[in-house]
Amino acid sequence: MDTLIENQRVAVPKKLEKMFGHLDYKNPPELCPVRDVMSVASDQWSILILLWLGYYPVLRFNKLKKYVYGISNKVLSQRLKVLEADGYVSRKVYAEVPIRVEYGLTDFGKSYVKRLLDLTEWMQQNSPKVLANREKYGLI
Amino acid sequence: MDTLIENQRVAVPKKLEKMFGHLDYKNPPELCPVRDVMSVASDQWSILILLWLGYYPVLRFNKLKKYVYGISNKVLSQRLKVLEADGYVSRKVYAEVPIRVEYGLTDFGKSYVKRLLDLTEWMQQNSPKVLANREKYGLI
DNA sequence: CATAATTGGTTACTTTTTGTAACTTACTCT
DNA sequence: AGAGTAAGTTACAAAAAGTAACCAATTATG
Predict the structure, then answer these.
(1) Which domains does chain B have, with CATH numbers?
(2) Which of A58, A100, B119, B136 has a Cα-to-Cα distance from A122 of 20 to 30 A?
(3) pLDDT tens string for chain B (140 positions)?
(4) For chain B, how far is it from start to end, CA to CA, in angstroms?
(5) How far is CA A35 from CA A23, B54, B138, in A?
(6) Do the chains contact at B118 and A118, CB–CB below 8 Å?
């Protein structure tokens, strides 16, 4: 695939081809499904929610809120809806009193969380380097 | 490690132990370096910038802006500064006229981009499922 | 018996972050 | 002379996120 950039034809790598197929600047970014999916799946709060649901089979709203330290009701509620709509998270309501709502991962969600754990493992190992870099940079 | 949640001791998995060591709600989230690192490294625009720099050895500001479709000068500039401070990106200025500034990945940045490519590969393969889920959800 | 607490959120309002578009400086090309 | 280029910056508008109060129903506490 070639893409028109600044009136020059530029080769796009196979791996990125589908990912950034909208590269031609006549196409709007909405045409790139990966960016669309990514905007939900690699959101800061979404990642934390998914990781915790990956460890505990089910979690209720208020418990999840305590694990995902610092999240507000509003954002937690909103992210859970979107994660459910995208197929990562399941939501079960029990008609008890007071009401009980259990959140968990779907199989699809579990397969994604595997990848997330790889990523966070890297971050865990490398965060000292980043913090050291940041400090060095600040001194210059 | 145990962590105090709702006055109950809850076991925290080894893998998440360091990652969410601030879980005790008396500690502020700033004490978790992984969340700190993640807030830069898994930011939407940062990911796109890093992926493109992963493919092209060097890119200049305006070219990068065309690849990272939809990004504004302001955000591109800001993200590049942060990515540089955290050690992912190198910035070289050539005192030509007009000025030339080349951005590239550091070795550290390259090691991270490998992980990012795994993640985006998953998204590339699974985005149809997500979009299908989303549509189904909308109909219910 | 009244008050407080619990559940899973929602709502109105404020603050922070983004997006938009114009502008900069110093030179080159037409 | 006027437009174009480079790599950004800046002021202002729009969108997203944080804050805190509130909901209804019921149970536990004093």
Answers:
(1) 1-31 (no CATH), 44-139 (1.10.10.10)
(2) A58
(3) 545 443 344 556 666 666 665 555 445 556 688 888 999 999 999 999 999 999 888 999 999 998 898 899 999 999 999 999 999 999 999 988 788 999 999 999 999 999 999 999 899 899 999 999 999 887 54
(4) 43
(5) 12, 17, 20
(6) yes
